Amino acid sequence: MRTALEVKGLTRRFGKTTAVDNATFEVSRGQILGFIGPNGAGKTTTMRICASLDLPDQGDVLIDGISVLDDPRLVRQRLGFMPDSYGAYSDTTIEEYLEFFARAYGLRGRDRRRMIDYVKDFTALGPLEGKLISALSKGMKQRLCLAKTLLHDPSILILDEPASGLDPHARVELRELVIALADLDKAIMISSHILTELSQVCSSVAVIEAGKIRATGTVEDILRSVESSYVEVFVRTLAPLEAVQRALLEEVGVRSVRRHKGGLMVELDGDEQALAGLVQVLVRRGLDPIEISPNVVDLEDVFLSLTEGQVQ
Ligand SMILES: Nc1ncnc2c1ncn2[C@@H]1O[C@H](COP(=O)(O)OP(=O)(O)O)[C@@H](O)[C@H]1O
Ligand SMILES: [Mg+2]
After folding, report:
1. What is the CATH number of domain 3-223?
2. 11, 256, 287, 294: which one has the fewest Cβ atoms less than 10 Å from its Cβ?
3. Strand ranges (DSSP E) for the chain?
4. Domain map of the chain by residue range?
5. Residues with Cβ within 5 Å of ion ligand 2?
6. pLDDT per residue as tens digits for the range 237-278
7. Class of domain 228-304
8. pLDDT tens figures, 53-104
């Protein structure tokens, strides 16, 4: 895999606040990195530095091996940044807006026409080209902002909370566009404070909290690391719940037992081996289990277990 974006020991302070604290991670071509963290975690600050719009106190970011500190102009040619909020331009049409930015990017003549048509087509905005921006829905505005970000055909994309405030339908559309861009071999970094928004798109995630990277890896790696540290199991038995509860609390490896929807929710220390042990205990003690269902750990649980809800 070819690394396209490398964040190396990045630190950025604002007065006494360390917004980004020695952050390190990377994104390869064709990969979608979910950059997840609660509000105030340092996502926007990190992304702005990656896009050469701000300078770090320490560390560096390499875009295709080029340092944002050494050559920000070259970096900007390779990289497209979609900020979390952008100017209004409400009295311009889609066509005028794209034309303006295409000129600002220095695109000329046939190249400019070709790229404007391409991004309009890609984001399905063609039929709306004459519409005023003020008349667009939030989802359409986001697609337009993405279209603008693609005008200079960047190979690396940094998208800051693009799904925020979108309805479910617009979110699915955006997700499909992001996947299509990764299929074009672009490296994509996309942030969100809502993990489920990204879990279906990203190939890897970096979890940030209070400026620190808490975890990085593929979605599977991170799920596995959490799964192996505890297993939560829903248990129903024919035996009375109090008896089962008492019996289970005597077992090594049972962390907690609580009432849940006509049964018990049992939290185990350990992995699937511990789950197999629980099944044996229920049978051996004659507690007549009729349902044993391990709770599937999803990314939302992982997020909650990795972060403590700290907001700066
Ligand atoms: N320009 C700035 N001046 C002072 N503090 C800032 C500035 N930008 C961000 N911060 C602080 O840095 C921290 C991280 O902010 P930010 O990167 O915007 O987080 P996120 O995008 O994850 O919500 C917050 O505590 C925020 O208040
Ligand atoms: Mg932000």
Report:
1. 3.40.50.300
2. 256
3. 3-14, 17-28, 32-36, 58-63, 66-67, 79-82, 156-159, 187-192, 204-209, 212-218, 230-237, 254-260, 263-269, 289-294
4. 3-223, 228-304
5. 43-44
6. 999 999 999 999 988 888 899 999 999 999 888 777 888 889
7. alpha beta
8. 999 999 999 999 999 999 999 999 999 999 988 766 778 999 999 999 999 9
